[in-house]
Write a structure and sequence with these properties.
The protein is α/β, with parallel strands linked by helices. It has 2 domains: 2-120 and 293-323, Quinone Oxidoreductase, Chain A, domain 1 (Alpha-Beta Complex); 138-262, NAD(P)-binding Rossmann-like Domain (Rossmann fold), CATH 3.40.50. The protein is built from 10 helices and 15 strands. The strands form 3 sheets. Strands 3, 4, 5, 6, 7, 14 and 15 form a 7-stranded mixed β-sheet that branches. The protein has a 6-stranded parallel β-sheet with strand order 10-9-8-11-12-13, with helices on both faces. A two-stranded antiparallel ribbon has the order 1-2. The protein is globular and about 60 Å long.
């Protein structure tokens, strides 16, 4: 039998419940995957709360790692016994086993544990497209990056430094400053929406930054815009504090012909080829020591609600994974 987390209505973490399902036979292009580790991401929280709608009742989760237990017709890229991971839909990763489209599986090296694969692939691909496609970061780039103490932020900070950028990290509390500096941030600021932009101006000698990576949303949006140099790029890729208020187009002009974008992982992994290319870049970066999976906590699958509560509390400092 299969244990899976399901929810029938949106709400607080306690809407998540364990259900027992039967094993399924993979159809054409599918595999039956026995999972060893499942990644928890803030997108899961927004889906559970209804900010990002999913058809209910539903499973949850977009990231996992395990072994292929059975393959359906037409599958040629993986075989039974292969160690694999994934970082995109369909939703339903919070389960001990599941069906999954074979073309969206990524074979992982023996040196990478299932736990580390589930902790790094979704966050790593997010960092990869943000740093290499949304705004090509390189030598001379100055970056303002929120959430450096978190899972995505930690990966982005070290990868951006490897690419040659100057990184100004933003953390939510003083206790996270030391970790942000250890990750390579050139400057670390404790978030205050009223003073952040002036602090950024001070540490950059008035130039401000080329690009802001902001997963916070409503409470940080204005400070982020005000931290950009003329023709800088505002990247709003999350909304942990709620969606930002609508922006008047004239505001971007008045603040120096700014660029504003709201990218998504789905749009940057829409084709199997692009998805695999980005995933392989992440795995190569892990192998080279450019980025390092960091697991803050492991929870039994049945305690998914507690994992969500801890993630939302802001206590976490790294990736959270579930263990079936």
């Amino acid at each position: 039998m299969v244990a899976a987390i399901r929810f029938s209505h949106v709400g607080e973490p306690d809407v998540l419940a364990v259900q027992t399902l039967v094993e399924q036979v993979p159809g054409h292009g599918e595999v039956w995957l026995e999972q060893a580790a499942i990644g928890v991401n803030f997108l899961d929280v927004t889906q559970r709360k209804g900010a990002v709608p999913v058809a209910l009742p539903s499973g949850l989760g977009l990231e996992g790692a395990g072994r292929v237990a059975a393959v359906g017709e037409g599958v040629s890229n993986v075989q039974v016994g292969d160690r694999v991971a994934y970082a995109t839909g369909p939703v339903g990763a919070y389960a001990s086993a599941r069906l999954f489209p074979a073309q969206r599986l990524v074979r992982i090296p023996d040196a990478l544990s299932f736990d580390d694969a589930a902790a790094v692939l979704f966050k790593g691909i997010t960092a990869q497209y943000l740093l290499k496609s949304t705004y090509p970061v390189g030598p001379g780039t100055t970056v303002l990056l929120y959430g450096v103490a978190g899972g995505v932020g930690a990966i982005m900070a070290t990868w951006a430094k490897h690419l040659g950028a100057t990184v100004i990290g933003v953390v939510s509390r003083q206790a996270s400053v030391a970790k942000a500096k250890a990750l390579g941030c050139d400057e670390v600021l404790v978030f205050d929406p009223d003073t952040l932009a002036s602090q950024v101006a001070d540490v950059t000698n008035g130039r401000k930054v080329d690009v802001v990576y902001d997963p916070i949303g409503r409470v940080s949006f204005q400070a982020s815009l005000d931290s950009l140099r003329p023709r800088g790029v505002m990247v709003s890729f999350g909304a942990s504090s709620g969606a930002p208020a609508p922006v008047e187009i004239a505001t971007l002009n008045a603040k120096g012909s700014l660029f504003l974008t709201r990218p998504s992982l789905a749009a940057h992994t829409a084709s199997d080829a692009e998805y695999q290319e980005r995933a392989q870049d992440v795995l190569a970066a892990v192998e080279a020591g450019i980025i390092t999976p960091h697991i803050w906590a492991r929870y039994p699958l049945a305690e998914a609600a507690l994992a969500h509560a801890d993630l939302e509390s802001g206590r976490s400092s790294g990736a959270i994974i579930l263990k079936p």
